[in-house]
Amino acid sequence: MRSFSRFVLVIILSFLVTCSSQVVYAKGGSSPEKLLLKDYRPKSIYSIPRTSVKKARYPVIDMHAHAYGKTDGQVAGWVRLMDEVGIDKAIIMTGTTGKAFDDICARYAKYPDRFEVWCGLDYTGYDRPGFGPAAVRELERCYKVGARGVGELGDKGRGLFYSKPTKAIGMHLDDPRMDPLLEKCADLQMPVNIHVADPYWMYEPMDAKNDGLMNAYKWRLDNKPGIVDHSGMLEILESGIKRHPRTTFIACHFANCSNDLSRLGRLFDKYPNLYADISARYAETATIPRFVTRFYEKYQGRLVYGTDMGFNARMYRLTFRILESADEHFYAWEQFSYHWPLHGLALKDQVLRKVYRENAVKILKGKRFEATTSGETNSR
Question: Is residue 180 situated within a structural domain?
Fold first, then answer.
C-alpha cells in the first residue's frame, strides 16, 4: 500500500513540475530548443528614439472601416475615440444589402458628419439567365437609403464572395454580368472598394523559406486547388478597371501588391480611375521603408488612409507612428501577427495631407468636407 502511495505521489509531483515548467516557459520562453514560431515574440533592445504620436498630424478620413459598433453606445464611444486621435470621418463598408444594410445605415446615420456607409451588391440569381436588373434596383434602393459607395467586394480566386448574404462563386470583377452594376455605380458616383487576392506569402509553400509564415499560415491559399492565383487576380482587377473607365475603384490593401508595389504603380500609371487604400498592410510595407516611402511620394495622389483593424487608440496611433515618424526597428506582432521589425516612413507633410484626407475628399466628391479642411493641424 505504501509503495502504491509513493507511486501516486511521484505521479502528482511529476505533473506539478510539468505544469510549473510550462508556466515558466509561457512567461519567459526561456527554452529555445522548444520555442515554437507561433510563440516567438521579439522585443527590440536598440536604444534609439521612440516616437509617440497621440493624434494624427492632420484630420484623417479612414477609408476602410466596418460596422464594428454594434450598439448605439459603441458607436458613440467610437466617435469619442475618433475625436481623441484625430479621425474626422470613417467609411463603413458593410458588404450588405436589404434589411441588414438598412439596419446598419440607421445606426450610423445619427452621426452623418462622422460616418459614411457603403453597401454590398446583391448577387441573387447570378448563375441564372436574367441576372442584373434586380441587382441594379437593389443598388439604387440602397443609394436612396444612404449608401454612397460599394464595398468591400472581395475575390481571393474563387469569385466574388464578400457580399452578404449572397455570394457569386465563379464570377469575377471583369465578368460581363457585373457590367450593369458597375456602370450604375458610375452613374450614381458610388466608388467601389475591391479586395483582390491576398498577400503573396499566402500563396507560397508553408515552409522554412516563407518569411511571412506566422501570418501566411492563418490565411494560406497555397492549399486551395483551382483558384485563380495571385498574378491572375491582378489581371482580373486590371481587366475590370479597364472595362469600366467611368467607375472609381479603390483596390484595398495596396491591391495586395505589398511584395511588388511596382505592379500597382503600373496600374496607377495606366488607369486614372484607380486608387488604393493602405489598410491592414502596414506591417508588410513598413519592413522596407525606403522603397515604400519613395512609392508614397510618387503616387501620393492615389493612396488613401485606411485601417480595417477595428477601433482602438493603440491601433490608430501605431499607424500614425509608421506614417509620420522616422523610428527604426520596432515590433508590433500583437497587432499584425508578424515577427518582422517595422520602421517609420517619415512621410512629408504634403504626402500626409493627401493620404490622410485630400485624396479621400476627391473620391467622395467632398464638398461637405471643405468646412473642416481649413489647413489647421492637430496638436501632437
Answer: yes
Helical axes 261-270 vs 289-298, angle rounded to 10°: 10
| Cα(360)–Cα(358) distance, integer angstroms | 5
DSSP string, 299-344: TTTTEE----S---HHHHHHHHHHHH----SB--HHHH-----B--
149, 27: one domain: no
Tens place of pLDDT per residue across the chain (380 aa): 444 444 444 444 444 434 443 443 444 556 888 888 888 889 999 999 999 999 999 999 999 999 999 999 999 999 999 999 999 999 999 999 999 999 999 999 999 999 999 999 999 999 999 999 999 999 999 999 999 999 999 999 999 998 878 899 999 999 999 999 999 999 999 999 999 999 999 999 999 999 999 899 999 999 999 999 999 999 999 999 999 999 999 999 999 999 999 999 999 999 999 999 999 999 999 999 999 999 999 999 999 999 999 999 999 999 999 999 999 999 999 999 999 999 999 999 999 999 999 999 999 984 334 434 333 444 34
**Boundaries of domain holding 23:** 2-35
Within a domain: residue 114? yes
Instruction: Tell me the sheet residues that pair with 251.
Output: 194, 276
CATH number of the domain enclosing 237: 3.20.20.140
Cell of 125: 440569381
Residue 276 forms part of a structural domain: yes
Distance CA 132, CA 122 (A): 9
Statement: the pTM of the whole predicted model exceeds 0.70: yes
Judge whether 217 lies within some domain: yes
| Same domain for 107 and 21 | no
**First-to-last CA distance in the chain?**
73
Total number of domains constituting the chain: 2
